[in-house]
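I have a small job for you when you get a moment. Would you make up a two-line entry for one protein for me to read? No commentary is needed, just the two lines. Write everything out right here, beneath this request.
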Amino acid sequence: MTDRLNLIDTIAKEDKFSTFTRLMAASGTNDIFGDSGAFTVFAPTNDAFAKLPDAKIDDLLNETDHKKLKELLSYHILPTKVMAASLVSAPARKAATGEELMFTDINGLKVNGASVQARNLEATNGVVHALDTVLTPTRIPLVAVKPTERPYTAAASATDKNSLL
């Protein structure tokens, strides 16, 4: 007999994942684990969710069908079990949404630049890795960038200089 729980219960028993647990249940995203097979979940901690504007989370929760919230949460799930030591063996893997997640091990293990904190929390149907940041699929921007805010690049600098002439 094993003491391991399924992914939903493994995540729920960790206080640091209470926000993720609540959002997964509220949106119905937990249904993804009803499919047979093993999964990898990159669960953002409560501190990761605290970095997001409250208004954005409220908007996602108040959406009638929770489509964007489900997509956001599904972006944190791989449809296969991958232990931390094996993540960088394939630097790109497709999330349950079909979008790619990028893995690096430079200055610590990272997923799309988010640091993996706790690793290899095993469950009967997969594994959980804790993240310090909520991953953002390209189709659901979580923080709006003002049109006047652009990253500084040499090309932007040259364009700006030319527009002054």
About this structure: The beta strands are 39-44, 77-78, 92-94, 100-105, 109-111, 114-115, 121-123, 126-131.
